[in-house]
Design a protein that fits this description.
Number of strands: 12
Helix content: 40-55%
Radius of gyration: 24 Å
Largest sheet: 8 strands, parallel, barrel
Oligomer: single chain
Distance between the termini: 27 Å
CATH class of the largest domain: Alpha Beta
Number of domains: 2
CATH topology of the largest domain: TIM Barrel
Number of helices: 16
Amino acid sequence: MPITLSFQADHVSHRLNCRLLQRRASALLRECRVADHGLSIRLVDDTEMSRLNKQYRHKSGPTNVLSFPMSEADDAGIENHGANSQLAQIPIRELGDIVISVDTALREARESRQSLHDRLTWLVTHGLLHLLGYDHELSETAAIQMLDKEQELLHKLHHSRSTAMTQLAINVDHIATIRQARGGVEPDPVAAAAICEMAGAAGIVVHLREDRRHIQDRDVRLLRETVKTRLNLEMGAQKEIIAFALDIRPDMVTLVPEKRQELTTEGGLDVAAQKKMLARAIDRLNKAGIPVSLFIDADGRQIKAAHEIGATFVEIHTGRYCDASHEKGRDKEFQLIASMAEEAYQLGLRVFAGHGLNYQTTARIAALDTIEELSIGHAIVSRAAFTGLDRAVRDMLAIVREASRIG
């Protein structure tokens, strides 16, 4: 049954991750064995919550959460204080409504030093248990019973994957690099992209550099017509390239730093130092219906800046993790990536990762439940020289899927 998530408040100061909240609510319904029931979650401001609180509870001011069960036994529409057996008497499979004041939740999150999404998750859990018949106000025993159930559910949520299985996007730039070495027409990155998709890739990535050292304009135009999954155009934030993106309209754009003398992208964008320029680029692309990712280092300052200027995604740079010369250094870089991916996820950003990942380093990153997609190119093209592109993609995809399953 569907979970309906609706908004009656405009919280421009803090983006809300609808996908995260719906996934967590769905997981709660499964854990409570009522996944076949519908549930409505309404996110409102303090003004609307105060109105509801006065109308239904005869109390002034806002509260954090109210539950309105779909139960004939409670005509008043307030919290369900009955037993679980009442669910069987409901003629339709609908639990009811949970109403949450985001204003109050945000204040409580700051006071308890937790993320807004974690606070909202607790309030959804609390409201759901009321709909299922739990009531902490009945007695001390009932309060303990409800608290124990809340902690049990939240513990299970914390130890389950935050996202669906990690996806694999293939960067075909180095197919074009081989072509450009001879200045001919082979090998064709457009044909390579088709092979990657047939092998199971969830997306195709190309970097249209200012100097056109590998991918050419014609490649991107043909890929726009032929890619069946998702075309992610990596690019610098130069006016000419932005105009090109607005013309062809890829499925998404990833803004990256670009230096003419570098062999490959050496690090993440300094978003914090370029907020105004990047914000303008994001605004132009978003108005054209093109979501934007920012390629950044695993740095909390850059993540916060990316969130503030309206990015939809961040792609966390994994190069230093992959290039670490000893295990201690690699562990340190991995822990930094893991913590920053969690921070970005909790802010409501969708999280990708990539750069330098190969058949030895990918599994650990793919197991992180906050990372939605990996972008890998050079390692797969290198392996393809020995095994063929189809086999190289399938081998990497097997690593990603197994790591996601275990993770």
